[in-house]
Amino acid sequence: MITKEKPCKGIGQAKGLGCGKLTFHRIYGLGKMCGCYSEWLLNSEQGKIKLAKATLKATKPSRDLEKADKERKTFTSLQNLKVSATNICHKYIRERDKHKPCISCGANWNEHFQAGHFFKAELYSILKYHIDNIHGQCRICNLHKDGNENEYRLNLPARIGKTRFKNVERLATESKETEFKWDRQDLKDYYNLYKDLYKEVLK
Questions:
Q1: Dihedral sign, CA of 92, 93, 94, 98?
Q2: I want to staple 107 with a disulfide (CB 3.0 to 4.6 A). Which of 23, 102, 111, 186 is the partner?
Q3: In 3D, which of 139, 94, 146, 140 has the Cα closest to residue 115?
Q4: How many CA atoms lie within 13 A of 98 on its CB side?
Q5: Is the predicted pLDDT of residue 67 greater than 80, yes or no?
């Protein structure tokens, strides 16, 4: 089928804007070869709207991917750093308190002891990695007695001293008055700190 030339004349949104020249390629009746369609896109209100919508539609997949990738990197980076810092911190605590009795009930140490927080990590983020807030604790106290806080409170001053105990309490009180958010550098610092401490305690 042979395509015939037709005059450039606007129809629809571009009605009445054609130049009348014969052309093979037309959109909204406007000739692409004679430049009328391009001029309509760039200079008319309707054309600008159409061009903007087309641009957004064309770039949406790319923008969505960029946004999703940025969000993934942000979330994953923080999550990975938290997990890494938590793992090495707990690993150090378990090694440091190896053979010490449970901080709460006094049960004899065994290989299933965990790193138990005095002030809960999910409620007191600022104390999540504080060395005086985490101690070797039996699974029963940590998992089944919700940390056995009353006994923990009685025994902790004897383990770390009254001055350090009061400091932990002060930090917990202050944390309720301020909003706290982790950043990557803090988490990296804690990771490196506990990695070095773990190496030292193994010597």
A1: positive
A2: 102
A3: 94
A4: 9
A5: no
